Amino acid sequence: MAIGFMVLYTKLSNVLSKKALFYTVILPFIAFFGAFGFLLYPLSNYVHPTALADKLLALLGPRFLGPLAIMRIWSFCLFYVMAELWGSVVVSVLFWGFANQITTVEEAKKFYPLFGLGANVALIFSGRTVKYFSNMRKHLGPGVDGWAISLKYMMSIVVVMGLAICGLYWWVNTYVPLPTRSKKKKEKPNMTTMESLKFLASSPYIRDLATLVVAYGISINLVEVTWKSKLKVQFPSPNEYSSFMGDFSTATGIATFTMMLLSQWIFNKYGWGVAAKITPTVLLLSGVGFFSLILFGDPLAPGLMKFGITPLLAAVYVGAMQNIFSKSAKYSLFDPCKEMAYIPLDEDTKVKGKAAIDVVCNPLGKSGGALIQQFMILTFGSLANSTPYLGGVLLVIVGAWLGAARSLDKQFTALRQEEELEKEMERAAVKIPIVSTNGSLESDSNTNTSTETSSPQNV
What we know:
Belongs to the ADP/ATP translocase tlc family. By secondary structure, the chain is mostly helical. The protein has helices at about 1-15, 20-40, 45, 50-60, 65-70, 75-100, 105-135, 145-175, 195-200, 205-235, 240-295, 295-305, 310-340, 345-380, 385-430, 445-455. About 85% of the residues lie in helices and about 0% in strands. Helix 2 (about 20-40) runs antiparallel to helix 8 and helix 10 (about 205-235) packs antiparallel against helix 15. It is globular. It starts with a helix and ends in a 5-residue tail after the last helix.
């Protein structure tokens, strides 16, 4: 679905204006979520081919259990896919693409971290909303499908908020003046989908951006899955596990909020390059500590017991800190850095590169981490046995991440300097007098000066 959307988005970007492209992409999402709450879910017993799936399962055997399970509840699976794509498409491509369009690099250093802060505040409100409607089901009478009622309310809110997004987009385009960009941007002809993919693959700038996104997805997946496997061993009780995860979520929110406030100072003090390297550096250092406690837990056990903790508990705490600091750095620094990197690009590269990276590379990073772990488990028998090799893979991935960030910093700085030079040349061009068709200068001051110097002197 993600790759299919990227292909379709690339084709539409060649034929539609930016405004038409925005509405063409977001309105199907709004329509689907409304239709799911009021049509697909209430009619799920009629639209799901349960009997056909049972017959095919008996005919084809258990090897096809997965695909047949998806077919059995296809509308629910489609809802999950659309919900996943909402984050990649509407938030990453549409929102951040529009923000890049109306924001300068200097403004981005101030406001992009605040956008992330607003997203975390919105998460609090959405969580309370879901909890409110979940509790409402307890007060309904017997025989009432409480989930169907809750779903209608929540999907109604989604539709209203989606239409509000469209209204705000229209208002900003109509009444807010856009920043002036250099008019000497490189213009590119319309390209086919394959030509666009080849063009993006040939761009070192886009390749480095893609490396950043994929490397983050793989790295955080490798550490998080390993950490959660240890967490389940340390807290086997569901209540203990949920309690710890509640504290973990609270700590993540506090760390993210604090980093959001610090991020503007980091951008202003140290610039884009340092900010882009903080997230992989944090993940590398904390990841080394986490995997070291797992691999060398037995030799460290006597020293840790003096503090009243076991190597397993120490690994759980260090892994929690690793996830907290990595995610807070990601939300406050990595995401703003990634979005700021699009700003100096020409419009064609910006639109198509962003679609390719946000819609394809984000899922690729997550699935890449999962594939690496599955390969390791099949090769070494278990996740525990593959832990040393996962640590080595993490070092390689983060090393490539840091190299891409260093390369991208040089290219980003060069593009900014080029853009500033073009603006200076445009400002200087305004001061150059324009010569009319009869050869005289149209500027009054220059005309007077020219007359004085060229007129014959009276002797």
